[in-house]
Design brief:
With 136 residues, the chain is an all-alpha fold. It contains five helices and no strands. The N and C termini lie far apart (37 Å).
Length: 136
């Protein structure tokens, strides 16, 4: 049987890789491009809350999600305010999962935000690890 216990001492390095990887995806693919876009892009993102019964303020909801994705990404990468940022991203991805699931065809469309949400939830639980700007 193959034993992988030698990797146990690299748990904090694994958390760093996960934080930086997930954070980079949020920052450069989801957050920044939408943050610098026009308010119509914010409204498109914010319309996801309509599936939760919220029928107004879509631009503001979209901006809130975009700020969570952009600012949360920076926090994940740095390991600073890690848990609140990871929680905000978990909630954002929960809404995105619902939005992708209902109008766009089920789990095939919702798989990416669901996966990102699960990864962020794991980061809430695990914390930032040793290699972070946050101590304790």
């Amino acid at each position: 049987m193959l034993h992988w216990s030698f990797l146990d001492r690299f748990t904090d390095l694994g958390l760093l890789v996960l934080r930086v990887g997930i954070g980079t995806i949020f920052l450069f693919i989801h957050g920044l491009p939408r943050l610098v876009a026009d308010t119509q892009a914010w409204s498109r993102v914010g319309r996801a809350v309509a599936y939760l019964g919220i029928d107004s303020g879509h631009a503001w909801w979209g901006l809130a999600a975009i700020v969570a994705m952009t600012g949360g990404a920076v926090c994940l990468i740095l390991g600073y305010l890690h848990r609140p940022a990871a929680l905000a991203l978990t909630i954002t991805m929960g809404v995105a999962t619902i939005w992708k699931f209902y109008p766009f065809g089920g789990w095939d469309s919702a798989a990416h935000p669901a996966t990102m949400g699960v990864a962020c939830l794991a980061l809430v639980i695990l914390g930032p690890g040793k290699y972070s700007f946050q101590r304790g």
